[in-house]
Amino acid sequence: MQSLIALFAGLLFGLGLTVSGMIDPAKVQGFLDVTGRWDPRLAFVLGGAVLTSWIGFQILFEAKRPVLADSFTWPTARQLDRPLVIGAILFGAGWGLFGYCPGPALAALSLGHPQTIIFVIAILAGMAAHRLTPVKRPPGSSRQNA
């Protein structure tokens, strides 16, 4: 049942990305180009995502337990560390330079553009490199190098 719900959620997410235009790198770059020909339309997409997430978290905070698990697993790390900052910089650079972040890039694979395929291969290579690189974490940190 969990796999079926995960598949449905992923398909719904991909559909939302497609309908909103988030899989079009030119549209994303137009939104990020605040000093040039700025296209503010994606601000509504982001605002809708923030509002939806806020409502979802309000519901989660009131729930006794999740629907498909025995308990909630919340992150415990509270400090900014070097891997988090480097990851954020790489994420932002990839989004700004190429107009993709991982979710929209996976959804855009359906379009078959070579640059999208190369971008996703680069994501997978980065994930593989991360898995092969041991990272020391402070005790009690919930993030793991798995």
Short description:
This protein is mainly alpha-helical and about 150 residues long.
Q: What attributes characterize this protein structure?
A:
mainly alpha, about 150 residues, about 65% helix
**What's the total helix number?**
6
* Spatial extent as radius of gyration: 18 Å
What oligomeric state best describes the polypeptide chains here?
single chain
Cα-to-Cα separation, first versus last residue? 24 Å
What is the approximate shape? globular
The low-pLDDT segments are: none
Proportion of strand residues:
under 5%
> How many strand elements?
0
**Helix-strand topology string:** HHHHHH
Helix content: 55-70%
The count of domains is 1
Class derived from helix and strand content? mainly alpha
The description of the largest β-sheet is: none
Rounded mean pLDDT score: 86
Keywords: Membrane, Transmembrane, Transmembrane helix
Protein name: YeeE/YedE family protein
Pfam families: DUF6691
Transmembrane segments: 44-63, 84-109, 115-133
Structural features, described:
The protein has helices at 2-20, 25-32, 41-62, 82-98, 102-108, 114-132. It has one domain (2-132). Helix 1 packs across helix 5, helix 2 crosses helix 4 and helix 5 crosses helix 6. The chain has six helices and no strands. With 146 residues, the chain is mainly alpha-helical. The mean pLDDT is 86. 63% of the residues lie in helices and 0% in strands.
Topology:
Elements: H1 2-20, H2 25-32, H3 41-62, H4 82-98, H5 102-108, H6 114-132
Helix pairs in contact: 1-5, 2-4, 5-6
